[in-house]
Structure formats: C-alpha cells, structure tokens
Backbone:
C-alpha cells in the first residue's frame, strides 16, 4: 500500500486500484463491502416460501371499527378526507384522496358511514386496493354503492394523470 498527501489529506493507493483515493471514497467503501460480503450474513425479503413457518410474523390486533352516529357531517367529512390521505401505502393514499376530493362533498350521511366503514374496518389496506381495482372479489359486507363508486373511479375512464394526492387548496373551493 502506498500513502501520499495532498494538501494535508492522506491518500491511499491499494493494490488492484488504478488511482489514488480518499480513505472513505466510494472505491474503498466498495472494496470493503466486496471483501467483507462473505463474512456478513445477508438480510433481505424472503418472500413466501414453502418452508416458511410464519412464526416470525407478528399480527398486531387493531381496535374494532365503531360507527360514530353523533358526529356532525362537516366533522365526518373532514375526518374521512384526512383518513383518505393518510393510509400508509402510496397507492391507497393517491386513490382514496382523489376519490374523496371528487365524492365526499356530495355523499349522503349513509354513504359517508359506508365509506367510513370501508376504509377503517378492514385491517389490510391492500384488501381495499385489490377490491377497488377488482383484482380480488369484494366481500359481501363491503360490496355497497360506495364500493361501486370507488371501483368506477379506479377505472379512470377519463385517463387522468393520477400520480400524486391533490393539493389541499380545493378544501377552500365551493363543492362542484
């Protein structure tokens, strides 16, 4: 190994490298990773394998969904809008926030209750996404007029570009 200094900073030339480099340069870090790879066990996603026992999966029970019959409609709409935007998975954040922007203002109280149940009772957001995109059949208890509206919205017949959630300025506009 050959050492040198430029402006007081040590440089190192390692065998096998063609140029001098700073000790923490990408080349040296890459070389360290390459040399240490056999020594460090690799971690990553295993996927579903036939030998996977599932014992390492932790299911966290969610509190049961409860209808809020005394909640004022404006408060319910605001809460549902927030819950539509903050889902935990980007696909549903985009789908449900755009759906909420377009539909919450015109939904009846009964429809708002069904939408509330739809987005809050299932414990897995992927279920909602698969039902909305018709990748999986919707269970009978969620197959309502609101789910039909969401499925129709997910088809995007107007071919709108839906790459991000709507800005919040529309909250201050009168409903269409």
Residues:
């Amino acid at each position: 190994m050959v050492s040198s200094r430029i402006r007081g900073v040590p440089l190192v030339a390692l065998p096998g490298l063609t140029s001098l480099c700073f000790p923490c340069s990408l080349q040296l870090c890459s070389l360290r990773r390459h040399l240490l790879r056999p020594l460090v066990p690799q971690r990553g996603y295993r996927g579903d394998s036939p030998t996977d026992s599932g014992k390492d999966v932790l299911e966290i029970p969610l509190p049961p969904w409860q209808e809020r019959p005394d909640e004022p409609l404006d408060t319910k709409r605001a809460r549902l809008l927030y819950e539509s935007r903050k889902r935990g998975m980007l696909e549903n954040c985009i789908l449900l926030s755009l759906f909420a922007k377009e539909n919450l203002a015109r939904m009846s109280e009964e429809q708002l209750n069904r939408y509330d149940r739809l987005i809050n009772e299932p414990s897995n957001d992927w279920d909602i996404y698969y039902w909305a995109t018709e990748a999986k059949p919707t269970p009978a208890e969620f197959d309502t007029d609101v789910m039909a509206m969401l499925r129709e919205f997910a088809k995007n017949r107007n071919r709108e570009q839906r790459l991000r959630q709507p800005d919040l300025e529309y909250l201050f506009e009168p409903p269409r």
Remarks:
- The helical segments are 26-36, 73-85, 90-103, 109-120, 125-132, 145-155.
